[in-house]
Amino acid sequence: MGVAQFEEEAPFDHRVVPLAAVLTRTPHGNLHAGLLYRGENGERCALHLGWQDKLYDRWDFQVLWAAPDAEPELLALAAGHCRLVWAEYQKTRSFPYAFEDRGASFDAEGRLVLSDGAHGMTCATIIVGIFHRAGIVLVQRDTWPIRKELDLKFLESVRNFTPPQHFELLRGEVEAGVQRLHPDEAVAACACELPAAFPAVRSESDALVTRLDGRRRTG
Amino acid sequence: MNPLIGFQLQTPTTAAASFPRRDLTVSSVAIDPGDTRFTQGAGEDAQYLDLLSKIIIFDVGGTKVVRTAKITVAKSKEHRLSWIDDVYSFVAKSKTDAAMDVLLGHLNALLTSSEFELCDSALRSLDFKRLDVTAMVTVLSITRPASSHLKARAEVVRDIEKALHERVPERANRLLQNLR
User: Fold this and answer.
1) Residue B134 and residue A137: Cβ atoms within 8 Å?
2) How far apart are CA B64 and CA B11, in angstroms?
């Protein structure tokens, strides 16, 4: 199994671990996840989807990272896919944010491919999608519960900066019973035996968030 | 020499240029009228040459002048696959990520433009003895979504399976698990 570690205790080094998922609590109070890897010029990058058409390759938050127990060559390959996805985004500046991804993945050019009924990805599902592209299956998505109340509460927290049409799309997904993967769960899955089922991931997620929030209070 | 991409300058002069390339710096290039320069491959070297030809700086009577050069792109299948030499070169230098990026970039380009026959040719011409493990899993990963279009892929999968079982027998199955 992988291990989750704070940057201060175990600095992320792409020469040792080519790719890791990273978790933080943003200044707005929500949990957020991304992927740490080496960029084209050797620089440290972090691919993370902030919101609709807001993909970034820099991470200015606290770093709690976890790498799955996968072969290093596959992690390096996933990092290569991160570079492709970022390069594609540089051209289009477009990336749909939505809860319903239906196992979406990326094509050969790093473009998001959505099947019928899928609308986009989140900061959590982009992690799953990129690992999947490199042959690493992080989670058993069919074990994920529908958490309508929790997801509607999350939606209310983002209502102010979400255009009405986009908000309605997301609310429609929640009302339809989407099995939303939360950011802490995508990172916690990396510290579980793969492919991870919901109960194990949720338990690991709770432990991770406790560590993260404990560090914020004392740090 | 593999003349894949070259540049031909229009003006007799001496060019001086330096570029922010990690492992290759050109400090000065002497160029004669009609002189044509070629690159060994279509990967990073070719991109570098392309850049060079676009922003080359001429020193004309003490004045720096920027000129562009004519780009020549070879069209034959063999030339279009010479980027594979770049992959071998990077692998030999243990530049794993660079080799992977060349593979991803070129195989992607072939697949997204539906050049499946050329992609098959690329797959058939790969010498797995000259690839490292990362390059091999990269080939499997990038071609997997297009496997129904690629006649050569099944054989490549078998070859890579064999190569991985010989090189990393204890890890081969984990590597191949979701990439076949």
Assistant:
1) no
2) 14
Q: In this predicted complex, what is the ipTM?
A: 0.81
User: What are the structural domain ranges in chain A?
Assistant: 4-218
**pTM of the predicted structure, to 2 decimals:** 0.78
Q: How far is CA A36 from CA A99, A139, B21, in A?
A: 22, 19, 24
Interface residue A194 vs chain B (CB under 8 A): no
Residue of A71, A76, A84 with shortest CB distance to B174: A71
CA distance B76 to chain A (A): 24
| Separation of alpha carbons B118 and A194, rounded Å | 36
Per-residue pLDDT of chain B (180 residues; tens, 9 = 90+): 332 333 444 343 333 333 333 333 333 344 444 444 444 444 555 555 555 555 555 545 555 555 544 444 444 455 567 788 889 988 998 888 889 988 988 898 888 888 999 999 999 999 999 999 999 999 999 999 889 999 999 999 999 999 999 999 999 999 999 898
User: How far B84 CA sits from the closest chain A CA (Å)?
Assistant: 17
Cβ pair B97:A80 closer than 8 A: yes
In chain B, which residue's Cα lies nearest the Cα of A77? B138
